[in-house]
Amino acid sequence: MSIDGTPDEQLQNEEPLTQVGLLGALARLANERTTSVFTPHLDAPKARLVKAYAEDGQPGVVVKVGGEVVGKYTVNTSKPKIVVDEENEEALDAYAEQHEGIEVIIRRNPVWEEALLKHCTRDDETGEIVDTRTGEVVPGLKYESGGKATGNITFTWAEKEVGRNRLLQAWQRGELDHMLTGVPELMAGARPAAENA
Description:
Layout: H1 9-14, H2 17-33, H3 46-56, E1 60-65, E2 68-77, E3 81-84, H4 89-98, E4 102-103, E5 107-108, H5 110-118, E6 120-122, E7 129-131, E8 141-144, E9 149-157, H6 161-172, H7 184-187
Antiparallel strand pairs: 1-2, 2-9, 3-8, 4-5, 6-7
Helix pairs in contact: 2-6
């Protein structure tokens, strides 16, 4: 761990992603029950998981302790959407002018544009963008497919409290001590009491 408490990227890259994910899940549990010492580890697998998604399409990693699932990290992906085609904005400007979507300052009204984008869909046969309210093809828009990593990940506890409790019990039994050697702040002092599980 670096002086500022940031996880050592070199060490995280050497550990299996499942171990880094387990440390991230443990960090979330401890953060809920103790101080913010674990905060730098909450999304410990983020960089490696986003990279694994980009390179191999790995959408996430299941986190287990003692062979039982405690949660999973999932790569957040962008959703498909209709956006302004910056290379063909003039066409959209002309369309906006015909449909009262131009403001006096000669730009598209952002409120009109937002409403238009919400009501547009991509025609699967032609690939054109259509305003579902009017059925008109809207020039100057393009379709962006989703599925690209956004750079963020999401952690979900298994079966709500079940995964959290499994992890807490493993921590209480000392099964995770080997992972905490790089976080000496957590080795000093008592583990959470069993009645808190």
